[in-house]
Specification:
The protein contains ten helices and seven strands. Helices cover 41% and strands 17% of the residues. The chain has a seven-stranded mixed beta sheet with strand order 4-3-2-1-5-6-7, with helices on both faces. It is an alpha/beta fold. α9 links the parallel β6 and β7 (243-246).
Length: 279
C-alpha cells in the first residue's frame, strides 16, 4: 500500500498569519514603549553595529526587560503569545484545509518558518496546529530565565529549514543530516508538494527556492495596509511567487480556494507519476 502524499503548508508568521509583529501584542507594552519606538531602537542597534536585525531585536528585548525588572522565561513568552491577533479565519483554517486534503487522499502538514520567537508562537492559540515550529529562541539559565540568543532566524537562515522539512528533520540544531545526500524518492516531502506563505522581502529567498524546485510560493497581503498589495504584485512580477492573495483564511476566501486548487494539482501530479512506474 502506497503512503499518501504529504503536502506541507509552510508559513512565515508576522504579517502572514498575524497582522503585526508578535512582540507588539504584549511585550513591547510591558516595557513601556510603542511599537514604533521599540523597532526604531532595534534598527539603530543593527545599523550602528552593522549587525543582524534579528540579533538586534533579541538583544533589545533582553535589555529592555532587564531595565523594567521583567523576567523572560519560556512561560512569560508564552503568555505574550496568548494575546497575538490573527487574521480572519486563521483559527479555523487548519481544520478546513486538513479536511479538504483528507477528502482528496493527501495528508496535510503545517509548519512555521519565522524570524520571530518559538516560545511566543508556542503560546499562541494556533500553536497545536503545527507539525514543527522553526523560529528564533533564547538559551535559558538554571533558573529558566533567558540569558542569550540561542537561535536567530534571518531571511537566509529560513531557507535551511525548507530542506529540513523536505528530509523530515525536526531539529533546528542539526547541521549534518540536512547536508547529507539523499535519493529523491527517500525525501519525505518533495519541494513540489510545498506551499509557502510569506508577506514580504524577508521571505524572498524561501519563496524563490520553493518556486525554483517546483513548489508553490504565495505572497499574502493585508488589504487594509497601503502598499502591501503593491509589494505582493511586485513579488509576482519578479517571479518570486506564483500567486498573491489577501490575508483572509475563511472557507469562502480566495486563499482557501487557491490552496484547494494547488492540493488538487499536487494529487493529480502524484497520481500521474505512479503511471510512470508501470512495468
Amino acid at each position: 500500500m502506497r503512503r499518501k502524499p504529504i503536502v506541507a503548508l509552510i508559513y512565515d508568521f508576522d504579517g502572514t498569519l498575524s497582522p503585526g509583529n508578535m512582540q507588539e501584542f504584549g511585550f513591547i507594552q510591558a516595557v513601556g514603549q510603542t511599537p514604533d519606538e521599540f523597532w526604531a531602537k532595534s534598527d539603530n542597534i543593527a545599523r550602528g553595529q552593522d549587525a543582524s536585525n534579528i540579533l538586534a531585536y533579541m538583544k533589545l528585548m533582553f535589555d529592555e526587560a532587564a531595565k523594567k525588572g521583567i523576567k523572560l522565561t519560556r512561560e512569560d513568552f508564552r503568555r505574550y503569545g496568548a494575546d497575538i491577533k490573527l487574521y480572519e479565519g486563521v483559527r479555523e483554517w487548519f481544520r478546513n484545509v486538513n479536511e479538504y486534503g483528507e477528502s482528496k487522499g493527501v495528508k496535510v502538514e503545517h509548519y512555521i518558518n519565522s524570524s520571530g520567537l518559538t516560545e511566543i508562537i508556542e503560546g499562541s492559540p494556533i500553536a497545536k496546529e503545527f507539525k514543527h515550529i522553526f523560529a528564533g529562541s533564547y538559551i535559558y539559565d538554571e533558573k529558566g530565565e533567558a540569558e542569550w540568543p540561542g537561535i536567530a532566524v534571518d531571511f537566509t537562515a529560513k531557507t535551511q529549514y525548507l530542506f529540513k522539512i523536505q528530509k523530515g528533520i525536526f531539529s533546528s540544531r542539526d547541521a549534518k543530516m540536512v547536508n547529507e545526500s539523499m535519493a529523491e524518492e527517500a525525501k519525505r516531502i518533495p519541494f513540489s508538494n510545498m506551499i509557502y506563505f510569506g508577506d514580504g522581502e524577508t521571505d524572498v529567498p524561501s519563496m524563490k527556492i520553493v518556486g525554483m524546485f517546483g513548489g508553490n510560493p504565495i505572497a499574502v497581503f493585508d488589504p487594509s495596509k497601503p502598499g502591501k498589495r503593491d509589494i505582493a504584485r511586485r513579488l509576482q512580477r519578479q517571479g518570486r511567487v506564483n500567486y498573491i492573495t489577501p490575508a483572509s483564511y475563511t472557507k469562502d476566501s480566495r486563499t482557501f480556494r487557491l490552496v484547494c486548487a494547488i492540493i488538487d494539482k499536487i494529487k493529480a501530479d502524484n497520481d500521474l507519476r505512479l503511471f510512470t512506474l508501470y512495468k
